[in-house]
Specification:
This protein is mainly beta. It is built from 4 helices and 24 strands. Strands 11-10-13-18-15-16 form a 6-stranded mixed β-sheet, with no helix packed on it. Strands 1, 2, 3, 5 and 7 form a 5-stranded mixed β-sheet that branches. Bound molecules: copper (II) ion. This is Multicopper oxidase.
Length: 478
């Protein structure tokens, strides 16, 4: 059967918003050895599985997703952050999850509470690591916001975790070892697939249906790179949603779906109870030997591979034929170049970089962005701790150097650290004293010991107050 892990949720009613709820969950990011296509590799995953567990809620809900960085495998990235793909995050940028843009990444042993609401948004979304290329190592999963008053509810009978279909590319090397032009080793449908040249053929995903019922399949391309042409033998697909936008129903045989895109399609299980190939074909791919495939199995059908064929002249999705269910007003005159303000974006490439109007994004480094140098140092210290249970080098000396560096750069702590991460340390009874210090956030309670050591060394008393698992050390200004 289709297997989707669903996060254990704590859902509580909110007194302030009618019908809205708070959806709370702890999400642990860990390293795991997985073999979704039969080939074992180290991964970075949420909840220990690929794809990551389904997160679900209803339109208008508030999500409180507490992400824990429990990573230990330094062959891959140890820092992390999570982006919730498709949500507007109006007034909640801090929950958007983009490392070095809207937040500093988490480092091992820390957690970060992503707290956001999704007013007016319902449909099919997903979530993934937004630190370097880490999501290619496995940290990606589905996110569905149901509309209890879905205007298209009459078009389908089943819409639950069994009808979520994730399409992924999969790599047999770590993202940290990827070649300049990565090529996927296989593709996975709901976390199962086969690769070319394998000596054993692992089981493919089976999507079960009952004859006479109509299913809302939420198809999500969670690939790092690949696009897929998706189809189900013997059945038409009625598209009713694209990327969180309800659409007027559009009947197709196949649809091309690019990385990050989502479509809801209604499948009417109106064929004879049997097995049918589900195909998700990347560029240049085939479905020979069960590659890029899963199985649609009717109740009562034998547990065997399908013998069906793809349609020879399928009706493919033409995106311009898709129209929103409810037209939204568009400002300006509805023709090219007639907007109130026209902004030209010339996208080019040079020296391996993409450029927009001749500019390329440069991630913030050093103390101008995230306190990267500090972050790296703390990271090293933490690694030492992970390995040895206690640091094997001169912690006080190292931290002193780091702090001096920071002092030299004149970092404004307010702009460098989200306030919620602060847990100020100050001399007992001298809270106002903090103004004379540059607080440095030493993430994780593990650093309490280090901080105390340093505090003792400096003859200062260390204490920690605050809700989060971070600790701030105040270094005196000169
Ligand atoms: Cu995304």
């Amino acid at each position: 059967m289709l297997s989707h892990t669903t996060l254990a949720f704590l859902v509580t009613s909110s007194a302030t918003v009618a019908l809205a709820a708070v959806v709370s969950s702890d999400i642990h990011i860990t390293n795991a050895v997985l073999a979704p296509d039969g080939f074992s590799r180290d991964t970075v995953v949420a909840g220990g599985v690929f794809p990551a567990p389904l997160i679900k809620g209803n339109m208008g809900d508030e999500f409180q997703l507490n992400v824990f960085d429990d990573l230990t495998d330094s062959a891959m990235d140890l820092a992390t952050s999570i982006h919730w793909h498709g949500f507007f995050q109006k007034t909640t940028n801090y929950a958007d999850g983009v490392s070095f843009v809207t937040q500093c990444p988490l480092i091992p042993g820390n957690s970060y509470l992503y707290d956001f609401s999704v007013p007016g948004q319902a449909g099919t979304f997903w979530y993934h690591s937004h630190f370097a290329n880490q999501y290619c190592d496995g940290l990606r999963g589905p996110f569905v916001v149901y509309d209890p008053n879905d205007p298209q509810a009459s078009l389908y009978d089943v819409d639950d975790e069994t009808t979520v279909i994730t399409l992924a590319d999969w790599y047999h090397y770590l993202s940290t070892n990827a070649p300049a032009i990565p090529q996927p080793s296989s593709t996975l449908i709901n976390g199962a697939g086969r690769y070319s040249g394998a000596t054993t053929n692992p089981d493919l995903t089976v999507v079960g249906v009952t004859a006479g019922k109509r299913y809302r399949f939420r198809v999500i391309n969670i690939a790092c790179d690949s696009y897929f042409v998706f189809s189900i033998d013997g059945h038409q697909l009625t598209i009713i949603e694209a990327d969180g936008q309800s659409t007027q129903p559009l009947v197709v045989d196949t649809l091309q779906i690019l990385a990050g895109q989502r479509y809801s399609v209604v499948l009417n299980a109106n064929q004879s109870p049997d097995n049918y190939w589900i195909r998700s074909i990347p560029a240049g791919g085939t479905t020979t030997g069960g590659l890029n495939s899963a199985i649609l199995r009717y109740d009562g059908a034998n547990a065997t591979d399908p013998t069906t064929s793809a349609k020879t002249s399928p009706v493919a999705l033409v995106e311009t034929n898709l129209h929103p269910l409810v037209a939204s007003a568009v400002p300006g005159t509805h023709s090219p170049g007639e907007a109130d303000i026209n902004i030209n974006l010339a996208v080019t490439a040079a020296n391996g970089l993409f450029l927009v109007n001749n500019q390329s994004f440069t991630p913030a480094t050093g103390l101008d962005g995230c306190p990267y140098e500090l972050w790296k140092k703390l990271h090293e210290i933490h690694l030492e701790q992970v390995k040895n249970d206690k640091p094997s080098f001169d912690v006080v000396g190292t931290l002193t150097t780091v702090f001096q560096d920071i002092q030299r750069h004149g970092v404004d702590p307010k702009s460098d650290f989200a306030e919620g991460w602060m847990c100020p340390i100050y001399k007992k009874g001298e809270r106002s004293d903090i103004a004379n210090y540059r607080p440095i956030t030493l993430l994780n309670t593990d650093y309490k010991l280090l901080t105390k050591a340093l505090a003792v060394n400096l003859g200062r008393e260390a204490s920690c107050r605050g809700a989060r698992s971070s600790i701030t050390f105040a270094w005196p200004k000169q």
